[in-house]
UniProtKB/TrEMBL annotation:
Source organism phylogeny: Bacteria, Pseudomonadati, Pseudomonadota, Gammaproteobacteria, Lysobacterales
Keywords: ATP-binding, DNA damage, DNA repair, DNA-binding, Exonuclease, Helicase, Hydrolase, Isomerase, Nuclease, Nucleotide-binding
Name used for this protein in its record: RecBCD enzyme subunit RecD
Family matches, as InterPro entries: AAA+_ATPase, Coronavir_polyprotein_1ab, P-loop_NTPase, RecD, RecD_N, RecD_N_sf, UvrD-like_helicase_C
Keyword Cell membrane (UniProt): no
E.C. number: 5.6.2.3
Pfam families, sorted: AAA_19, RecD_N, UvrD_C_2
GO terms for cellular component: exodeoxyribonuclease V complex
Record text on subunit structure and interactions: Heterotrimer of RecB, RecC and RecD. All subunits contribute to DNA-binding.
Annotated catalysed reactions: ATP + H2O = ADP + phosphate + H(+)
Signal peptide residues on this chain, from the entry's feature table: none
Keyword Cytoplasm appears in the UniProt entry: no
Binding, ATP: G165, G166, P167, G168, T169, G170, K171, T172
Gene: recD
Amino acid sequence: MNAQVMTWLDRGVQEARLRPVDRAFARFLASLDDAGDGRVLMAAALASRELGEGHICVDIEALALAEPLLSDAQAWLPDSILVGSAESDPNTPLVLDAGLLYLRRFWRDEARVADAILSRLVASGAPADLAQELDRLFPAEAGAINWQKVACAVAARGSFAVITGGPGTGKTTTVVRLLGLLQTLAHKRDEPRLRIRLAAPTGKAAARLNASIAGQIERLDVDAAVKQAIPAEVTTLHRLLGSRPDTRAFRHDRDNPLHLDVLVIDEASMIDLEMMAATLDALPRDARLILLGDKDQLSSVEAGAVLGDLCARADAGHYAPSTRDWLAAVCGVDVAAWTDGADAHALDQRVVMLRRSRRFGEDSGIGALAQAINAGDAGAVTRAFAGTRGDIAFVAPSAAAIAALAIDGREGAPGHRDYLDWIERERPAIDASFEAFQRWGAGALAAYARFQLLCATRHGEAGVDKQNERIAQGLLDRGLIDAVTGWYEGRPVMVTRNDYALGLMNGDVGVTLWVPDGQGSMALRVAFVVMDEQGGERTRFVVPSRLSAVDTVYAMTVHKSQGSEFEHTALALPSEPSPVLTRELVYTGVTRARTHFTLLAAPDMLGYAVSRKTRRASGLLRRLL
Ligand SMILES: Nc1ncnc2c1ncn2[C@@H]1O[C@H](COP(=O)(O)OP(=O)(O)OP(=O)(O)O)[C@@H](O)[C@H]1O
């Protein structure tokens, strides 16, 4: 390898501009083309680094900004034997497509996702009786457009739909009504029941949907037979596709597709490109796919922002005049303000944004704050905190104040003290039945989940690790726990690696309790609520020594909190600017709160974060339009 390039790579790693894996990738490419243009290796290292930041590819115009030597890449990149184009040799490790440089695997995943979605955008005929069924499911409401009804109509019309909306806008409600509608229509036509599956990217998100969907089905205004044909069980995507230890491949794929007619995936913002590609691969050609999620939340941990890309144009609608007319006919709504005859693509006709939160009304501080953050409106953010709404509060972020809030909560809003008090108060008698202890375990977890402290990062002064230490010490000082290390009653832990043997997934949370050990003594066990094969929930007690990868969780990162909600959510931001501080991070943190939100941050840090909207590089939207 060219010595100059080698030095550049080494310096990049030393100065943390590159990761060791990026350098290793460039060196590997050098072994394939030793005499080649060194600039290609530098570009490859940068494309690899961008993946670490969640970008699928790197815009070659941006390469020159990172490294002046790489300017004018369009002139020399295509000459390399390492670089292919969309049409050329399928074996080159890099692909240059429409000015974007990809690592081959990600280019292929993106192309697979785009092709699968494009093939589903072909409008199929709307079912007869649709208008009548929609009217029954969505009784007329005065005032604004009923976007839930619009979403239901759009999703009933074709084999692909995206329903996006903030918290409490009715995504679950809409999808339950949609499933009722689809089953009703199938029933009326004497067709077999549709095979419906519901999935979410993580166990926690699946459990939450599971809990909310059952009640919604019960309330649905459809025949009992139709109700029965709507599943309440929600599985994880990994389980649905059939994950196998030690391989990225799933049991279900193109050659062994899933057995279903309708797949609904909730919390779709958490799905990365690779997972989306695997899901679409395993989906039968004529099955219907409905994605639900909040486009403004943080993107997936791994590379890609599939939901964000699909919903990039959702605010403005971009409905075609033909869609507008059809919606007027079947829903009785006028979406003229969201119609754009000059710039309406097939994808736009399949995306509906729910715009009214039923959870956060006009007087909700959380709702106003979330909206101000999304709009990047620093003035409105400040005004939201200055208002008199008690549901949001601002606390100056000293270490002592954060720990105190996390332990004692604030007026009307719980802190961690509350679940520890609950454990003590509700402790079963020593000779109580095992079932009583199981109920106690489930109750302890529910009590624990009423409050959470969220942090932007794991490390650093304001990171999860430090907050955990301080809170544990504060709980010990107040006599609420009796140790701060090792296993002790009340210790909440989060699983950090999938453990298939124990049936515990990364992100699962348990609380440590004294329970009967089955041999006449009491022992410390960690209570988890796990889903059984039927999608029901039950409490499991796990021997602590069997948990090899867990962290104490008095605080968690915003990333880890995705898919969960807490009655009271507190968000602590670091005191220094950092790349992780973005609008999406703050929005995701705020929208984890159900009834109370507390911000622990310097006002300038909040302003800094809210001004930084991220956009992950990808070519997906371009391919779909
Ligand atoms: N059309 C409706 N009529 C009456 N109540 C509704 C309607 N839509 C939603 N709701 C109520 O609003 C609340 C939020 O609805 P839902 O859970 O469907 O929203 P969501 O977007 O799925 O929320 P989440 O943020 O939890 O994912 C629920 O209590 C639900 O019963």
